[in-house]
Amino acid sequence: MAPCPAAPAPLLASLALLLHAALAVHHVPMLLWSTRRSQWNPDIAVHEGKVVSEQELTSLLQPLLTQNSRNLVLFLQDRLSIDDFTYFSESYGNKNPFQNVQEILQSSPSSLVLPAVDCKATKHLLNILQESGDWKLTNVTNLNVSQLEVNASNPNLLVVQLPPLASDLKDISTLEAIAENDKIIGRVTMDLQERGIHFSVIYTAVRSSRISRRTDVVAELRRQLMATEEEESSSYPPLNVTIGNDTCILFYASNFSLKANNSVLIDLTNATFLAQNVDISASECTDSNTTLSLKYTRPVNGISSLEIRFLMTNKFYEVSARRWSTLDSVEIVQDGDKLAKFIVSGLSTPAEYSFHCQMVGTSNLYPARLDRDPSNSEAKNWDVFLSNLQIQGFNIINNQFSYASDCTGFFTPGIWMGLVTSIILLWILTYGIHMIMQLTTNNRFDDPKGPALSVPQTE
After folding, report:
1. Is pLDDT of 266 > 70?
2. Is the pLDDT of residue 229 over 70?
3. What is the chain's alpha carbon radius of gyration, rounded to the nearest angstrom?
4. Cα 88 vs. chain centroid, distance in angstroms?
5. 283 CA to centre of own chain
6. pLDDT given at position 219
7. Beta strands 368-372 and 338-345: pairing type?
8. 383 with 247: CB under 8 angstroms?
9. What distance in Å separates the CA atoms of residue 239 and residue 253, rounded to the nearest whole number?
10. What is the pLDDT of residue 203?
11. DSSP E strand stretches across 141-245
12. Residue 55 φ/ψ, nearest 5 degrees
């Protein structure tokens, strides 16, 4: 790498271009491999600076869509960047979180690496695959392919929604999450190979992760980066419930997961928003009460049916002289009879607004919590995780969310720290001024030309 020029103008110009590129990441990597040979032309070379468009991606996927025996596995992660492969592999010594993926790519008869694919293309990837043929779509949520019935004579599309990466911005947490997803990819691939099934794989993400993690400038611009990510996080439309011709409920979450018995993770994000394998027919809407009912069939092995209900009310309060919408409770019904009930705290907004919160769940660390009902014994068996939740059950106009009332209070921890520090400094300043004002000077001074002052001393 050439040394940086000493002239300030070129340096600032280069820095501006770097920051602009860091703030405008709209592409993700895509890895493709197959157990069949000659799927792609060896002369195909996608340069690192080339961003593959949706039309170009459709052309590159044609070998997978036109082969005789079509078994396609789609591993979909919430976020991924091409820099993740080098950053995590080089920063933690022998801990390579992409070990299985790299070994599979090297040993596969055919493989193709696309460093940059337009996020708009990955957003519609599932639709592109479904429209390309008569696929048998299967959402793999239990991550155990050995129990799936795969008919090799018919085209099969297996969609594996990988667990989301950590959202606490800590590299070690992201490293562990990526390593766990890598193990899932290796396990699923090995299961299919042991059964003698020929298949092809697509590994990509919905949106790009942050890049240049070591750059101090990007760290200083974390607020701008977070704002950019939030704008790009809406990679799929919200779930809407329509009664007649009117939309009465809108529901969105970037991550919607449950954990049963503190061990079985059930990720419902893909089934709810992407594949939309969810039954909302039991949802109800009135002017004063709204119930969002989400029913899933066999989300994991051992659970034949699962229903999640969000119960909301719309009431008029005389103190504020306006109507308020409140999410009162969340209920989980397993197999039609096991009811777990959670009391919601901190989820209310003016009836004309939607409600938004970055983290909602059963954890005490979340700003909006789902408290287990003490009188309900089933609630202790479930944990709920919702990221970037936005929900509206009343006064929906033009099928769009209204202005969002966020769960973050005005007095955040940062504001409280600033206030306490300012008060302490102000007290110190006030005490110092008070002590200075108490200083007095002598009212008489010794005159060298006159008699010496006599200061009587008493015991």
Report:
1. yes
2. no
3. 30
4. 20
5. 26
6. 38
7. antiparallel
8. no
9. 9
10. 92
11. 156-161, 200-207, 239-243
12. -65, -40
